[in-house]
UniProtKB/TrEMBL annotation:
Lineage: Bacteria, Pseudomonadati, Pseudomonadota, Alphaproteobacteria, Rhodospirillales
Domain of life (superkingdom): Bacteria
Name assigned to this protein: Uncharacterized protein
């Protein structure tokens, strides 16, 4: 196995993770969900679509990761979690 094979596997795993995140975003954006999200769900949806369209675009991947971390830190996180 060459280094490029390992890199290809990594990119494939990231692409698959982005697809799973896109499916979750779609589910949480559905009407009637108990938690109502606003601009952040739309931003995640757009970022997932960009990664889906160009899975090798490092800027699209970085934006999706940045948004996912922001949601992790600032949404749905109990206020008593000191590290967040």
């Amino acid at each position: 196995m060459a280094l490029s094979d390992a890199c290809s596997e990594f990119v494939s795993e990231v692409d698959e993770a982005a697809r799973r995140l896109a499916a979750a975003v779609h589910w949480y954006a559905a009407p009637g969900m108990p938690l109502s999200y606003g601009e952040e769900i739309d931003a995640l949806r757009r970022a997932c679509a960009k990664v889906d369209a160009s899975p090798l675009d490092p800027e699209a991947l970085a934006e999706l990761l940045r948004l996912a971390v922001a949601v992790l830190r600032y949404l749905d996180t109990p206020l008593d979690v000191p590290q967040l």
